[in-house]
Amino acid sequence: MAEYTPKPEHKFTFGLWTVGSRGADPFGQPVRPTRSPAELVYLLGEVGAYGVNFHDNDLIPIDATPAEAEAIKKAFRKALQDTGLVVPMATTNLFSDPIFKDGAFTSNNPKVRAYALQKTMKAIDLGVEFGAKIYVFWGGREGTETDSSKSAVEAIKRMREALNFLCEYVIDQGYELKFALEAKPNEPRGDIYFPTTGHMLAFIETLDHPEMVGVNPEVAHEHMAGLNFMHGVAQAWEAGKLFHIDLNDQYPGRYDQDFRFGSRDIKAAFYLVKFLEDVGYQGPRHFDAHAYRTEDYEGVKEFARGCMRTYLILKEKAERFNQDPEIQALLAEINTTDETLSPYLGKYSRQSAEALKHIPFDRLNLGQKGLLYERLDQLTIDLLLGVR
Ligand code: GLT
Ligand code: MN
Ligand code: MN
Is the per-residue pLDDT at 1 higher than 60? Predict the structure, then answer.
């Protein structure tokens, strides 16, 4: 039996805000004491994570003095050195402070938009200082409760203007940094602009430097929208845009749950892990989730270990799926080839189109043939439930 021990090559990362979450929710106060960024790095080292990510204000409080900031950075740097953890990704908090109550880059107020740019430039500097190569943009407040308040088209234009500005900033500084845009349909706003990964992918192509910008899809956010997460990830991957990924879990149609990876929809998690492993995704596997509010810090460690363990179990299941003779025989049967039809299924030519119009097809027979998917799916379930 495999050990399911996390190793650096698995690139398992956690945000400071994930294991550092104190369990507050809109109805209840924090249940866990504050842990400093350095303490959280030691916790992550203990459970075997590879890296740690942060928002500017997870590391340095928004009102810290320069001396306080230096002391925090020093302790954080030492913790990274002591544990060997790296910082693959950083991001900006553009949602907690009251100034962002009606958005940051999409605010109606130019002062707020300019402050958001200033804050993000400084946060980029901070991320790069600690080695981040990926910079995430999650516009939690970029949305509305009432659409009387803002032009949706204007909001898109403002977002584009901000990202173009920040791409130029990165180029101008000579930073080796890529942007990853993270979609979410709602919460904390009534509605958030660019609600899904698909919206983000379309938007990216309208930027001045699309090559610098990809996506950071999150399981829970696409499940909130009732979508098949793996399908969205596959589209991002196929477009060369899967720069980062946020792993967690979520029941559709509910509040933002941020559950431990694989704790809700094992089957969806399996197809996702199988996809990432089959295509050879090389980026970090970031667990953007929280421990249950019932837990103390021992429970937080259980939570973090659980995220990684489930990923590794599903990775092993994916390998078994790929090696299972019966499953593979079924797949071979399902994926029939027919060389005589290849001239008509590729690129268009007037001749092939004309010829295709005259090919006879046994429509009734093709429509009646069973496709063996019930058998295939049950074999998958047997495998996942451990009886195969
Ligand atoms: C926040 C949000 C996440 C984002 C983080 C990055 S912060 O916790 O719920 O999905 O990825 O800003
Ligand atoms: Mn996220
Ligand atoms: Mn989330």
Answer: no
